[in-house]
UniProtKB/TrEMBL annotation:
It comes from Gracilibacillus orientalis. The keyword Oxidoreductase applies. The lineage of its organism: Bacteria, Bacillati, Bacillota, Bacilli, Bacillales. Belongs to the Gfo/Idh/MocA family. This is Predicted dehydrogenase. Keywords: Oxidoreductase. PANTHER family: OXIDOREDUCTASES, TRANS-1,2-DIHYDROBENZENE-1,2-DIOL DEHYDROGENASE. Residues 132-248 form the GFO/IDH/MocA-like oxidoreductase domain.
Length: 330
């Protein structure tokens, strides 16, 4: 079987602990190199993860003709530079979320990737877990009746105020870091795009990034939704869909991979009672395999550039609304 040869740009924790091991578990990919601007850091990561080759610069890695694709877990503000540079070297690109910090940045990336005929995807791994497909099926079957409301939340308490997630210049903020999942989940589960956005946020007075954000997406059809994200609140990662006959709650919406057996629980409550359904899946590996199949076998991406554009459009509008206090039409 053909395999996709991956290079990893940086030794970021998400790559070391989640994405690299997932690619190594996959049936169609292998990690052949990792780069860091600190050669010793690259060597330590390579030794820890059994990666055969290291580079002391990102440029050197993307120059290597043996590497087919790169995974980019760099700080948000560096995504555009390295997505475009990788594309120009004919490398397929899987980039961490949020893929960009503005609509304009994303368009530049997409243009570069299309010009160079490379596959490009944002790493929203949670959507590959089968629990979400099961939720959609329950909704389509009318188990909870007509959907009237949905809320999605993702937060964790970030005590270290020097953390990169709070660095404005590098694209920090709770919405960029975890709130983007809440926005994505609402649009993904409802399978609709909003017509307007309203958001409100607490911006740290010294760091100038949002540490808590909340708001609503208006779909123009009577369905009310709310989202929130925070670095000031205790850990939550859940969503709830409420209909005329019942509700569905997902308690490990975005990181069910941390549960035993990578199991996600789907709590379904109707007039007939409460039922807890289970779905298991390796979301990071499923993402890596989908990406590799798109490159190797020309299969469709589960998450393509049209969906990426729609997500970025909403994310951009959320920030605009939080800063202006205005409802932003989409």
């Amino acid at each position: 079987m053909a395999t996709l040869k991956w290079g990893i740009l940086s030794t970021a924790k998400i790559g070391r602990t989640q994405v690299i091991p997932a690619i190594q578990r996959s049936g169609n990919g292998e990690v052949v190199a990792i780069a860091s601007r600190n050669q010793q850091t690259a060597k330590e990561a390579a030794e820890e993860l059994n990666i055969p080759r290291t580079f002391d610069s990102y440029e050197a890695l993307i120059d290597d003709p043996e590497i087919d694709a790169v995974y980019i877990p760099l700080p948000n503000a560096l995504h555009k530079e390295w997505v475009i540079k990788a594309a120009e070297k004919k490398k397929h690109v899987l980039c961490e979320k949020p893929v960009a910090v503005t609509n304009e940045e994303l368009e530049e990336m997409i243009i570069a990737c299309e010009k160079n005929s490379v596959v490009f995807m944002e790493a929203f791994m949670y959507q590959f877990h089968p629990q979400h497909q099961k939720v959609k099926k329950l909704i389509h079957e009318g188990v909870i009746g007509d959907v009237a409301f949905m809320r999605a939340s993702f937060s964790f308490y970030l005590e270290d105020r020097s953390n990169i997630r709070l660095n404005h210049d590098l694209g920090g903020g709770s919405m960029f870091d975890v709130g983007c999942y809440s926005l994505h989940a609402i649009r993904n589960i409802l399978e609709q795009e909003p017509v307007s956005v309203y958001a409100s946020a607490h911006y740290h007075p010294e760091l100038n990034v949002d540490t808590t954000m909340t708001g609503t997406l208006n779909f123009g059809n009577g369905i009310v939704t709310s989202f929130d994200s925070s670095f000031d609140c205790a850990s939550r990662e859940q969503y709830e869909v409420v209909g005329s006959k019942g509700n569905i709650t997902i308690t490990s919406a975005f990181r069910p991979d941390t549960n035993e057996g990578m199991i996600g629980e789907i709590h379904v409550k109707t007039d007939e009672g409460t039922e807890v359904l289970e779905a298991a899946g390796d979301q990071y590996t499923l993402m890596a395999e989908n990406f590799a199949n798109a490159v190797l076998n020309k299969q469709s991406l589960f998450y393509d550039t049209t969906k990426m554009r729609n997500q970025m459009k909403v994310l951009d509008a959320v920030y605009e609304s939080s800063k202006t206090g205005q409802v932003i039409s989409l």
